[in-house]
Amino acid sequence: MPMKKVSAWRTRVFQSWFRLSRPMTLGVRGLVSDEDGQIVLVRHTYVEGWYLPGGGVEKGETVIEALRRELAEEAGVELTATPSLMGIFSNHRAFPNDHVLLYRVSASGWRPCQTDCAGEVAEISWVEPDRLPEGVTAATARRLQEWLSASPPDPFW
Predict the structure, then answer these.
(1) Domain of 92: which CATH number?
(2) Are the C-beta atoms of residues 121 and 42 closer than 8 Å to each other?
(3) Which end of the chain is less packed: N or C, by CB atoms within 10 Å?
(4) How many domains does the chain have?
(5) Between β-strands 25-32 and 98-105, what pairing exists: parallel, antiparallel or unpaired?
(6) In a domain, 83, yes or no
(7) Which residues, in sequence order, are CB contacts of 134 under 8 Å at separation 6+?
(8) pLDDT above 90 (res 73)
(9) Which helix (H) or strand (E) holds 12?
(10) Cα separation, 24 vs 50, whole angstroms
(11) Euclidean distance between the first and the last CA atom of the chain, given in angstroms as a whole number
(12) Looking at the domain assignment, is residue 95 inside a domain?
């Protein structure tokens, strides 16, 4: 079976399991910049596209703990300061009753650390926010455009 079909099948299985085990899901993502103004994006092994790093909030975990864990695991970013909440978004297009909290992490709010993506992340890239790589997801591009232009956010992820 081609890798694309396996990845799509695996994503559907995980989404089905999450729907049954968690009536509402909550995720976090980080818009992290470095001293040169570049932002970090990740490309996963199980789904196509470039994303802001992040993931699901686990049972018993605060959103900041989840963000701290996900940024370290996926992007090699260790929080050293409290990030600022940029918005809460409904992600109903992808998953009914899913919400994503987006946090801003400035260059002074983190330091590099060892990643522990265990095969989850195919590639990490620091890019200019106005020169995104081919394949960046629509939601990621939308959030970055809103941030760059200081425009009001769309309530949907």
Answers:
(1) 3.90.79.10
(2) yes
(3) N
(4) 1
(5) parallel
(6) yes
(7) none
(8) yes
(9) helix 3-21
(10) 25
(11) 31
(12) yes
